[in-house]
Amino acid sequence: MKVSGAYKRYSAIVKNGLKNGFYNTTRELDSSVMLSRGLIDTFGCTIPWLIMANNDTERQEKTRRYLINYVLVWLTPFVTLPLSNRFAMKHIAKLTKSFWSNNHKAMIISNKFLKDKYLMMPELQKMADKTNRYPLESLFNRFFPKKKYAQKIDIKELLKSVDGDTEKLRQKLIKAKNAVFVSDCIFTFGSGATVLFLNNEITRKKTGQAGFSAEMGMADKETVEKRAESYEKNKKKKYLAAAGLTVFTALGMSLAAFATLYSKNPNKIVQKLRNGSRWFDYNKGIYMSRLPFFLGNTSFVGVNLLAGRNNTERKDLAIRQCIGDAVFFGGDLLLASVFTNMCDRIFGTKLCMDDGSNSSVIRKIFPKIKPIKQVYDEVKNGKISTVNKKVSSGIFWSNMVILMVAMGYVIPTLINKMIRHDVAKDVEAQNKKAFNLSVKPVKMEDFINNAGIK
Length: 454
Known about the structure:
With 454 residues, the protein is mainly alpha-helical. The protein has three domains: 31 residues; 232 residues, no CATH class; 127 residues, no CATH class. It has 16 helices and two strands. Strands 1-2 form a two-stranded antiparallel sheet. Helix 2 runs antiparallel to helix 3 and helix 2 crosses helix 15.
C-alpha cells in the first residue's frame, strides 16, 4: 500500500511537472516572436527544405546558410544584445560609469513610456522595484543561486548622471535604444545578405560551376552557367546595392520608431508614429519584435533578387521570402483569430478581446485575441474557466503545425516543380536553336547534282 501510494504521488508530481512545463513553454513562445519564429524556422523551413533539396550541392548551400543564420540571427542576440545595451548606456548615452552597471537594464523600458518624462519616471521606478534578468543571467542564477548577479536598477544613480534632469534622461535613453536598434538591424539583416552572396562564391569554387545549384544535374554545365552569365558580370554592383538596401531599411525604421520620440510638439502624423513606436520594442531587451523583424525580412525580397544567379533562382528566393513572410509573420495571427472566434462561438470560451476593439465588421470576422499570458492569468485569478487555458494552448500549437506543413512541404514542392519546368523550357529552346542552325537550306541545282539527276 505504501509503495502504491508513493508511486501515485510520484506519478502526480511528474504529470503536474510535464503539464506546467507545457503551459510555461506555450506562454513563453507566444510572448516571444523570436523564439516562436525560431521554432517554425527549424521545423517548418530548415529540416524539410534540406530534405527536399534537388541535389547535394543545393543541400550544402542551404545547410551553410541555415547554420550561419542560426548563429547570427537566433543565438548571438542572447550574448550580443545585453553587451550592446551596456555599451550604448556607457558610451552612447553616457548614463553609466561602469560597463557592468546594472542600470543598462533601463534600456528594457518600452518606447510607449518614452513619449514624455512624466510617463517615463513611474515606469522606471516600477522596473527598479523588481529584478529583471536576461536568459543567460537566469541560467547563471539557477546554477549559482547564492551569487547576486542580477541587481536592481538604481534610479538615483541614473538621475545623478544627468544632474537630475529627467527630460535629459529621456532623450539619452532614446539615443541609446536607437543606436542599439540600428546596429542590430544592420548586423542581423546585413549578415543574412552576406550569407547569400558568400554561398554563391563557395559553390562556384567547390563545384567549378557558377550557376544556380538547384539546376545542377537538370542540364549540362554549359547551359547552367549560361543561365547565370548576367549575375557573374554584375555581382560587385549587386553587393553594393544589397548593402545599401540593408542600411536604408535600418535607418528608415529608426526614423519611424525613434526620431519621432524626440519631438515635443508633434503633428498628427508624427503623433501616430510615436504611438506606434512601441512595436519596435525588444522583448526582455534582446528579442526583436514582430514588426521590425517583418520589415527587415520584407526588404530581403530585394536582396534575394540581387543574389539570385538567374531568373529562376530569383523567383525561387522571392517566392520563399514573400509567401514565407506572409505565413511566418501573419499566418499565425490570422489562423488564431479565426479558430479563436469559432471556439468562442461554439464552445463558449472567452478568448477574444472584450475591450471594445472588436466592434468593426472586419474585427467581427477576424477579432483581436487575448495573448496566452493574459488567458493564463485570468484563469489563475478565477475570471474565466480552465477550459480557456486548454483551448488557447491547443489553438497555438495547431497554428504552429499548420504553418510548418505549409512552409516546409507545400511551398518547396511547388518551387521544385517550377525549377524543373524553367530548365526544361530553356534546354528545349537551346536545342531548337541548335537544330535550326545545323539545318542549312539547299539549292535545287545542288540537290539535283548531288542526287546524280541529269
